[in-house]
Amino acid sequence: MARTKPRSDKVLTIRIPEKDLRRLEAFCILQEKTKTEVIRGFIHQLEVPEKAAVVEAIVADKLSS
Fold first, then answer.
1. What is the pTM of this model?
2. Is residue 5 a part of any domain in this protein?
């Protein structure tokens, strides 16, 4: 599959129990998606209250500096 979007420059490393990793990998296989796609999808589903949106904007500003 050809990449249609520019590569992201941020990397997130997490530690999870092997049981959770197996569960994530099984989910990815069933959905025919990568772990990155699934995790991004979960993040996009997060409900962010108005106050948190302001904090998110501040964090984004700091990360871009």
1. 0.63
2. no
Domain count for the chain, please give it.
1
The DSSP line for 1-65 is ----SPPP---------HHHHHHHHHHHHHHT--HHHHHHHHHHH----HHHHHHHHHHHHHHH-
| Domain presence at residue 23 | yes
33 within domain boundaries: yes
pLDDT digits (tens, 9 = 90+) for 37-57: 999 999 999 877 777 778 888
pLDDT in tens, 16-30: 999 999 999 999 999
* Residue 59 domain boundaries: 18-64
